[in-house]
Every structure is written in structure tokens, then in C-alpha cells.
Amino acid sequence: MTTITAARAFDIRFPTSRFLDGSDAMNPDPDYSAAYCVLETDGGGEGHGLTFTLGRGTELCVAAIEALAGKVVGRTLDGIRGDLAGFWRTLVGDTQIRWLGPEKGVVHLAAAALVNAVWDLMAKEAGLPLWRYLAAMTPEEIVAAIDFRHITDALPPERALELLRARLPGKCERIAALEADGHAAYTTSAGWLGYPDEKIRDLASAAVEAGWRGIKMKVGASLADDRRRAALLRDVLGPDRLLMTDANQVWDVGPAIEWVRALAEFDLYWIEEPTSPDDILGHARIREAVAPVRVATGEHCHNRVMFKQFLQAGAIDVVQIDACRLGGVNEALAVLLMAAAYDKPVCPHAGGVGLCEYVQHLAFFDAACVRPGDEGRMIEHAAHLHEHFVDPIRIERGRYLAPQRPGYSAEMKPESRDAFAFPHGAEWRGA
Amino acid sequence: MTTITAARAFDIRFPTSRFLDGSDAMNPDPDYSAAYCVLETDGGGEGHGLTFTLGRGTELCVAAIEALAGKVVGRTLDGIRGDLAGFWRTLVGDTQIRWLGPEKGVVHLAAAALVNAVWDLMAKEAGLPLWRYLAAMTPEEIVAAIDFRHITDALPPERALELLRARLPGKCERIAALEADGHAAYTTSAGWLGYPDEKIRDLASAAVEAGWRGIKMKVGASLADDRRRAALLRDVLGPDRLLMTDANQVWDVGPAIEWVRALAEFDLYWIEEPTSPDDILGHARIREAVAPVRVATGEHCHNRVMFKQFLQAGAIDVVQIDACRLGGVNEALAVLLMAAAYDKPVCPHAGGVGLCEYVQHLAFFDAACVRPGDEGRMIEHAAHLHEHFVDPIRIERGRYLAPQRPGYSAEMKPESRDAFAFPHGAEWRGA
To answer: Interface pTM (ipTM) of the complex?
Structure first.
């Protein structure tokens, strides 16, 4: 019987803005960061979780983790496993803190770090990588991990159970295939807005060489620049590889339609975040107007109720869940199942530190146990900062290899946590 | 030329949970609280703003105010007045902090406190109560205070200008009438869920006696209780006064419809927050199913993009803006104008500390300068905690009297701020 005895939170920031890594039209100067949390147990095992941030304000998520830590400390893993949805509700449903969301913003990001750390702990205790831990749960156990509040009109628990049960046949074979062949992916690391054309061409050529099937470019600052870069990338990619675009919310609905149409000749696979991430009806209008270009969103989609509506309204083609924008594994499961119910592919968001490590588990589990077929399912890849993780992603010929080590893979190396601790770590002391 | 020289933030909590004031189905034990902010100037004048909270977690909003304070300190009032929308964007659009919302949750609540404190300062400097300060601005100046990003599909600036210009004739007469007769209102203070029946009957009788035209009761914990209380309140109210109900988000879409139908015989004026505040499509379905009972929501509606969609989808009958859930005065103006464009009444949310003081200004301005006609416009009233304010609301025969003192009325008495400071104020030291 393992008991969680302490929760510690850390502010860790990488000075990525110095090189414009991660730059886009809305986020010109991100310092990829994390509000990082470590759960200690009486057995000596540790759970690690993080929520991704962009630098300033990370301290707010750290403080929110501390404010919520009391919901976790003192709990036993057996007790949590016995009521996974109830455990999740205690983290997002505090009767006073809830006002500050509800289920969105700083408090939801913080809850995600804690929730994910608990799943990391449970998977480690079972000796399984998280996706295998989830795949070993019965459909009934998965359903019991989900808070269906406010989504039963789109996905009642019985329907979720039905979907999971329908995927039981062939599960072992699918797991074996995923272990052998990995999972489809695309890369974002060639097309950051802050990069000059030559750097983009070199990176894109290298990406094609390395076997990537698709590249995402950032758009939205200047149409002339976007057309020039899209032509450049389409030239490097050839006609068969995929070119995704990402506007990071800069447009209003009307301008989004015009801009995407002005890029359509370059055969865009999708346009991501064309407008406000809260604008379900706006995305629906854009989608109708720019087809066959797909519409994708999700990295700022803060909970299952928003994703429910994006699906109900037919507003998106691609569901880009974020492992810590949503309230951690429990809520990600809800969205994977809703996406399957509406037959939309989930292509998780992973432009950030630790996000690739996280979301690979969700995508592999989705492939093994949730959505039938592989059509359109891809994991985003961003190349940087993996060296700071104990169990970094492994890429081969443009595909993610299945994670093998126990846990949720978000554990940072102690020396990285020390060096990039803000503001007193060695990397920040001079800054 | 006044310059803002410092911004100080305070954590102030009132132990209302000891008496179940403010209790409802989702919030059983609120301690009405505020992340409170004071702007100091070189001229000696002060601006005061607050964001309402429920107790735990207030420290997060205080920290967020501190994180954003640098956007305000050092600015001149002339500079801010010269670009009000641009000023607002600097507060909600920090390129790193924005990730933690965007435009929602803790960081948006904190921005609201600062934004409102700036408007308080500007109105005080002009020697006018905020609503008169707004009414003295030209249509062009009001439009220039609004960030239209992501709402131009529903309300382009030209349309906003048109609406405001159309209301110029008769403005002085309407202001005079508001000064003379005050503004319609209803009270929430009779029907908190934690109160016993006898207390509810006594409070409701007193409310009728005092001249209130409507009472709101909290529902959603037990249908039998709700039916008994609704019968009791309808009995006290008689057939002509209004009975509002508020479920504080507890239902899923299907159960919301069933529950409201089971209360319809008591002639409900509206059902408020029947489900998740994020669920635009759910509210639309509920509204269609429970008519003629109106659907109201807004106290958790975090920005203009969400209100835009509630209006576009025909999902609500009543627009319940919150003065500090939205990003302060600038964003409230955007929603007042959108509501007018869609011809829906705005009945601002005011169950909380300082909210009545705030929203009276928005409603009086709306009546004077924005939405034609009075149909359905009411200000919520909650009876408690007004004694802590320097310029408290004034009620006569169930109507708000027009605020007269310069500013936005959210300034708390220094002795109250000291006594209820958390955790070291006199009222908390023993707790």
C-alpha cells in the first residue's frame, strides 16, 4: 500500500527565446518552461508531472500546484485507483478554487501536472510505460477514470464502454505492431516564424531526408512571407508529403478564410488555430469555407466540454489534445473517446518542453485501444529540449518508437532541473 | 499629467461560509473574497480595483496582479486614455503569460482588477462616477476602448459606432431619469441553498415588503426541495413578481431540461447556469426545450468570444456579464454592445463582494447609452458585505439609485481591508 507523502513544485525555464525556437505569430518570444511537480511516496518511488508554460507566469502554476497539493498528499495509490474519476473531481472541483476556472486556465494547468504525476506513479509501480498501463486496464476501468459531467449528451458512459469493448479484438496484435513499427508523426521544427528562409530550407530538406511525412509551418504575420515560405516548403516536400500550417489564433473569422484560400494552391493539409481557440462557431464557419483544407485546433482547448462542442458542431477535422492543457490523463481519455465517437483523428499537440514525451503515450493508447483505423492519426514532433529528459522520445524514419520505460516519460534529469530552475539556477543567474 | 507609480495587491477574505451566505449547489461553502489592487499615482490619487474570488486560491490572483503590474506602473493616464484598446491588449496579451489563459482563468481575473482600477482612477480624476464618465465619452471614444479581435464577425467597429450614435438623441433625458428613478433590480439574498425554509420565507416576505420585483432561488441539489421552495416563494411573491432560478452548472444537458420542466409550473422567469458555463451548444438546446422559461448565463463566461457565440447561437435570453470575470471595463463594453446588437438584455451578475458596487455602473451606462428600451434589464442584488465599501450601493424600493461619487465604487474601507486581510488580519488570526 503506497501512500503519497509529499508534493513539491518547481519553476523550470529554458531560455528558448534567445534563438527564436518556438516563435510564431502569437508567441514571438517563448521561453519554453514547466511548472514541474514531484510526488514522493512512503515506498521511495516518485511520480513526476509537469505543465507546459512559456516563461513569465510559470510561478502562478507552481503556486497553484501548491494550492492543490493537499488533494493528493496523504492519499494511497490503492485509494486513488479505486475511484479514479472521483480523485480527478477532487482536483478540479475544490469548492472555492473552482471559481478561478472553472476547469480552465492556471488552476486547470496545475491540476494536470498533479494528475499526470499520479498516473506516472501508478504506471511506474506497475512497471509499465503509461500507454501499456492504460492498455492493460479493462474498458470498465477506463470508463471509471472519466468524469462524464457535462458531456453525457455527446458521450454517455455506456457509449464509451461500447467503443472500448468493440476494440478489444485484435488489441494484442495492434500493440505488437506499435512496438515493432512505431507511430506516424510529423515535425514542427522546420517552420518557426522567427527562422530565416535559408534555415527553413535546410531544416526542411533535412526533415525530408530523415523520413518525415509532413512538416508544419507557422503562418499569419505576412501573407507575402507565408506564400513565399509555403512555395519553398512545397518545393522541398514534393507533391506527396504533407504541409500543415499553424496561425496560432491571429485571425478573425473573415480574414482567416481569405488568408487560407490565398495559400490553398500549396496544397495545405490543415490550418491550425485559425482564430480564437474559444470560437467553436467561428471554426465551423472557417472549416466550411476552406475545405478541402482541414481545420485543426486543441492546444488551447481547455476541457472536455469545449472539445465536445467542436465535435458536435463539426467545427474541426483534427483533434489536437494537449496533455496538460486538459486536466491530465483522465480528461484526455474523455476526449480520445469523444473523438472516436465522432470519428475524428487525434493528433496531439507537442510543440513545447515535455509534450512530445507525454503525448506519445496518449497516441499509442488511442491506436491500440480506442479509435479504429489509422486514418489521419499523427503525433506532432518538435526537436528541441529532449536531452533534459530521463526517458526522451525516440524517433526513427519520421516515426515515434513506442516508449518502453515505466511511467509517463515526463521526468526531467535532476541536473537539468537544477540548472534551469528559475530564477536561481546556473542558466539564469547571469541573465 | 498623472503617472501611475505603484500597484499593490491584497488578499482579502470574508468568512461567509460560517453562515452559508452565498451557498449554492456548486459552491456550498464560499468565503467571499477579493484579490484587491491599489494603484498609486504621483498626484496622490489612488485607483482601486478588485477581482471577486471564493476564498482559497485568492493568493493566485494576487500573484497574477503582481505579475501584470508592470504593464500599468509607469504609464500616464494621458497615455492610457490615448489608446485604451491598446492598453487593454498589453494586459491580456503578454506574449508569455497569455499561454496561461488565454483571456480566461486566473490571469484574466487579475487583469480585470488592474483594468478596473485604471478606470476608477480615470473617473475619479474626472470627478465623475464611472457610468457618467463612460456616458461622457463620445461613441468614437467608446469604440476606441474596445479590442475587437475575434469578434468582428458579430460586431465590427462600424456597427458598434452605429449603435452608439443611434442612442445619442435623448441621452441627457435618460441620464436625468436614471438619476431620478434609479434602475430596476432583483435580489438573490433570499434563496441561498444553505438556508432553511423558514429563513427563506422570512427573507422573501421582507423582500416583497421592501419592494423587490423579483427574487432568485438556488436550485439543483434536490428536486423535491426545489419544488417545495419554489412553491413557498411563489406563494410569497404572488403571481406578478418574478421568480428566477439558478442551478450553478450542476446539470448535464438532458437532466437540465427535465428538471426545469418539473419546476415550470411555478412560473420561472429564468433558469441561470443550467449546465457548464462553457457549453454554448448545450445552452442552445436547453433554451429551445424549456421555453418560455428564459435561459441566463454569464458569471463564468470569461471573455467576449464566448458571449459572442452565446448570442450567435441563440443560446441565451439574458446576458449576465461579470465586471471582473470579463477583463474589466473595456471587455464589458464589448459585450454590452454585442448584446445590444442581438437585442438581448444585460442583467449583470452581482452575487459576491464588490460586484453590486461595480456592475451598477455598467447597467446605468447601458441604459443611458447602449441598448434601446428597458425591456428585461435588471441588476442583481445581494445584501451582504456592502458595509465594507467607501461608496456602497444605495437601494430604494427594490431599485438601485444612481451612483454619485467619483470612481468605480469598488474602494474598500481601509479598516475592512486590514481586518479581513488573509491570513494575518484580525478576523482571521484566530481562525
So the answer is: 0.97
